[in-house]
Amino acid sequence: MTSIAVIPGDGIGPEVTDQAVRTLDVLGFGLVFDVLDHVNADTYLKTGTALSDADFDRIAASGAALLGAVGDARADTAYARGVLLRLRFALDLYVNYRPARLMHDRFSPLRDASRRPIDCVVIRENTEGLYTGIGGRLRPSTSQEVAIDSEISTRHGVTRILDFAFSVARRSVCMVDKSNAVRHGGALWQDCWALARGRRPDVQTSHEYVDAAVMKLVHDPTAFDVIVTNNSYGDILSDLTAELAGGLGTAASANINGATGFGLFEPVHGTAPDLVGTGTADPIGAVLSAALLLERLGHDDGATAVRAAVDAVVAAGQVTPDLGGHLSTNDVGAAIRARL
Amino acid sequence: MTSIAVIPGDGIGPEVTDQAVRTLDVLGFGLVFDVLDHVNADTYLKTGTALSDADFDRIAASGAALLGAVGDARADTAYARGVLLRLRFALDLYVNYRPARLMHDRFSPLRDASRRPIDCVVIRENTEGLYTGIGGRLRPSTSQEVAIDSEISTRHGVTRILDFAFSVARRSVCMVDKSNAVRHGGALWQDCWALARGRRPDVQTSHEYVDAAVMKLVHDPTAFDVIVTNNSYGDILSDLTAELAGGLGTAASANINGATGFGLFEPVHGTAPDLVGTGTADPIGAVLSAALLLERLGHDDGATAVRAAVDAVVAAGQVTPDLGGHLSTNDVGAAIRARL
Ligand SMILES: CC(C)[C@H](C(=O)O)[C@@H](O)C(=O)O
Ligand SMILES: CC(C)[C@H](C(=O)O)[C@@H](O)C(=O)O
Fold it and tell me: Which end of chain A is more exposed for a tag (fewer CB within 10 A), N or C?
């Protein structure tokens, strides 16, 4: 028996998480679900606490966690940070694993999509960079104000994310930085990159500055397999790869501690307030995040089955409006489950 | 008589700059050219100096500067920084103005290009952010190494770039940041943004987080007019908009001190070592940069004429291979001049 902490969250989070949980339920594998449906913006607005220490401990004690989406226009940005970034940092989930695969030519925003099907993974460093919160504001709100956010890179952090990238490479690894302008961390990434490449002479490698990487991804996404980069560039590049793969609705992600194996799995999309209650939210991103969870728990066969079921419903056009279909969130989920 | 400092630089820099200078020459306007063709990687490799103080003073004393491209695989990154970033910072060229306009549907990488023609301008803050070089490495090359690059935002710097963006808005201004994760500078940008919007209630505005902005640009670039953002995001977004407008070959840019009016004009592309000497480098990015220079000097009619000539050669298919043509760099330049 493995306990899965479930944080449905806000907006469409509960709707898509429900489909992910039911998908896992059909497969069995002895998973039990500990649903924390009070972790949401309402609670934050009432109590001022984004995630209580008791809830944090419950999640940390679970075998893995599944998250829907957190955020709310009524709450300040400290709320989303207090849930998502707290979990990433406090559980040292240093790998943000974001695969992007074009499931059907017609989903691509690119011309000649059949010749440019994206199939890559962004490996984003998830515990350093510009996301530590370290910095401050001097003379706030005056004309002399200076604000500083420290972009922090450590040899420990950079080395482990590079090594993780090599461990999941199929064809190649491309390291993305801005070492021609952002000097100090840039030099550290370059040093660690040279060493990591040396440890894996069997894997083909390349390097791009982030601005050039964006252009090349649009120009020819097939050139990329595994892309490894820092927290900020990973945030940006993984939204781009998701868009090139057909939009945010289907993008899945895993936040992993590569040492303990603990993972927090979430669709890349947000709360999508305009879709709440319409029954049109795409559940595929959440369901594919559940597939990543199965993989992490060692149930590769289950993950493969979920992906095959998703591919089949997509091929059959059993999809929500974002993918050109007219099925509801629940109908897509049911169609996936029917194929398991 | 206005003296224009010309820095052809490296790679294809001299080839495209030659076309830009000849375009300006045809138009007259009393421009004289002070060519600094010794500012290049050979000089840097020989002397260790990227840009001498004497050369810096010559450029600073000119009426405007035109740059080709700087960079060389034999030189370290301090070389490009020592020329380009030094000029941007020391001359306080705080506006990086990067327009992107799809000149012909067939240049777009997007499907249904005719419904999604990009026509926007990225206004990039050019003198702060992650580009100051401030930071360092603690315990370099040891397993305990920590590197820090400070992302610096000042009320002075953010306010002036936001106001500049409003001053060039046609339809709307979209401010892009990552204030949900990068807190301190994020809060400063948000404060300054609220004030800048208040000063220009006549202009339509929107806000996007940088990851969402990238998705929306690919999804529907027509949604954007003026985009204003920090140094790093401006670097990334302007390469994306250039790609969506048909590739780097035609993208022009201006580095401007909004107070003195001094400008350094350069194509967005780099040195393109593989194209050197082939005669296939696209001169349009450099020629359109010259048009921006004319505009800055108050010769709006000249700028309009150059743009019309470029549009005409593009419509006639008189273009280099990157745009599907078979003309040489010089032939494209000659075709543009023939229409002036
Ligand atoms: C060469 C590099 C430092 C530069 C930058 O990032 O500013 C370039 O990419 C640009 O956009 O002008
Ligand atoms: C909500 C935000 C802080 C978050 C991030 O930037 O990490 C999100 O964009 C993501 O990519 O998971």
Answer: N
